[in-house]
Design a protein that fits this description.
28% strand; alpha+beta; elongated; four-stranded antiparallel beta sheet; 108 residues
Protein backbone atom coordinates (compact mmCIF):
# COMPACT_ATOMS: atom_id res chain seq x y z
CA UNK A 1 0.00 0.00 0.00
CA UNK A 2 1.34 3.47 -0.82
CA UNK A 3 2.54 5.62 2.09
CA UNK A 4 1.66 9.27 2.68
CA UNK A 5 2.97 11.99 4.97
CA UNK A 6 0.32 14.44 6.13
CA UNK A 7 1.21 17.78 7.71
CA UNK A 8 -1.46 20.12 9.04
CA UNK A 9 -2.18 23.31 10.91
CA UNK A 10 -5.15 23.54 13.28
CA UNK A 11 -7.48 26.53 13.41
CA UNK A 12 -7.10 28.58 16.62
CA UNK A 13 -10.61 27.76 17.81
CA UNK A 14 -9.91 24.04 17.39
CA UNK A 15 -6.76 24.30 19.50
CA UNK A 16 -8.82 26.00 22.22
CA UNK A 17 -11.37 23.16 22.02
CA UNK A 18 -8.59 20.56 22.19
CA UNK A 19 -7.33 22.19 25.39
CA UNK A 20 -10.74 22.01 27.04
CA UNK A 21 -11.82 18.58 25.73
CA UNK A 22 -8.48 16.78 25.94
CA UNK A 23 -9.39 14.16 23.32
CA UNK A 24 -6.73 11.91 21.82
CA UNK A 25 -6.37 13.30 18.28
CA UNK A 26 -4.23 10.35 17.18
CA UNK A 27 -7.08 7.97 17.97
CA UNK A 28 -9.60 10.15 16.09
CA UNK A 29 -7.33 10.23 13.02
CA UNK A 30 -6.66 6.49 13.27
CA UNK A 31 -10.40 5.73 13.26
CA UNK A 32 -10.96 8.01 10.23
CA UNK A 33 -8.09 6.45 8.27
CA UNK A 34 -9.20 2.90 9.08
CA UNK A 35 -12.75 3.74 7.95
CA UNK A 36 -11.25 4.20 4.48
CA UNK A 37 -9.25 0.97 4.61
CA UNK A 38 -6.00 2.71 5.49
CA UNK A 39 -3.56 2.41 8.36
CA UNK A 40 -2.08 5.09 10.62
CA UNK A 41 1.61 4.30 11.16
CA UNK A 42 2.72 7.39 13.09
CA UNK A 43 1.17 10.51 14.60
CA UNK A 44 3.11 13.44 16.04
CA UNK A 45 2.40 16.93 17.26
CA UNK A 46 5.08 19.33 16.09
CA UNK A 47 6.58 22.78 16.51
CA UNK A 48 7.03 25.15 13.59
CA UNK A 49 4.92 25.68 10.51
CA UNK A 50 2.76 22.60 11.14
CA UNK A 51 0.96 21.51 14.30
CA UNK A 52 1.09 17.84 13.44
CA UNK A 53 2.52 15.15 11.17
CA UNK A 54 1.18 11.68 10.41
CA UNK A 55 2.35 8.78 8.26
CA UNK A 56 -0.39 6.61 6.79
CA UNK A 57 -0.90 4.04 4.09
CA UNK A 58 -3.93 3.50 1.86
CA UNK A 59 -4.82 0.97 -0.83
CA UNK A 60 -4.58 3.66 -3.54
CA UNK A 61 -4.42 7.41 -4.15
CA UNK A 62 -8.16 7.81 -4.67
CA UNK A 63 -8.85 6.34 -1.24
CA UNK A 64 -6.18 8.51 0.36
CA UNK A 65 -7.70 11.58 -1.25
CA UNK A 66 -11.21 10.67 -0.12
CA UNK A 67 -10.05 10.26 3.47
CA UNK A 68 -8.12 13.54 3.36
CA UNK A 69 -11.14 15.35 1.98
CA UNK A 70 -13.36 13.92 4.72
CA UNK A 71 -10.95 15.01 7.46
CA UNK A 72 -10.30 18.45 5.96
CA UNK A 73 -14.02 18.89 5.31
CA UNK A 74 -14.74 18.83 9.04
CA UNK A 75 -13.39 22.38 9.17
CA UNK A 76 -10.86 22.03 11.99
CA UNK A 77 -7.77 22.64 9.90
CA UNK A 78 -6.31 25.68 8.17
CA UNK A 79 -4.13 23.66 5.84
CA UNK A 80 -3.17 20.08 5.04
CA UNK A 81 -0.19 19.12 2.93
CA UNK A 82 0.06 15.49 1.83
CA UNK A 83 3.21 14.04 0.32
CA UNK A 84 3.35 10.67 -1.42
CA UNK A 85 6.26 8.71 0.04
CA UNK A 86 8.35 6.49 -2.22
CA UNK A 87 9.79 3.33 -0.71
CA UNK A 88 13.53 2.74 -1.22
CA UNK A 89 13.13 -0.21 -3.62
CA UNK A 90 10.77 1.89 -5.78
CA UNK A 91 13.34 4.68 -5.79
CA UNK A 92 16.09 2.32 -6.93
CA UNK A 93 13.89 0.96 -9.73
CA UNK A 94 13.07 4.53 -10.81
CA UNK A 95 16.79 5.41 -10.85
CA UNK A 96 17.47 2.34 -12.99
CA UNK A 97 14.79 3.38 -15.47
CA UNK A 98 16.04 6.96 -15.53
CA UNK A 99 19.64 5.83 -15.99
CA UNK A 100 18.63 3.70 -18.99
CA UNK A 101 17.11 6.75 -20.67
CA UNK A 102 19.89 9.10 -19.57
CA UNK A 103 22.62 6.74 -20.79
CA UNK A 104 20.89 6.13 -24.13
CA UNK A 105 22.28 7.26 -27.48
CA UNK A 106 22.92 10.98 -27.81
CA UNK A 107 20.53 12.77 -30.12
CA UNK A 108 21.32 15.40 -32.64
Amino acid sequence: MPFYMHQWTYKDQHIRRMLTEGKDRAEIIRVAIEAFGGQLHSFFYSFGHYDGVAISSFPDQETALACGMAIFGEGRLITVDTTVLIEPDEGVRAMTRAKALFAGPASG
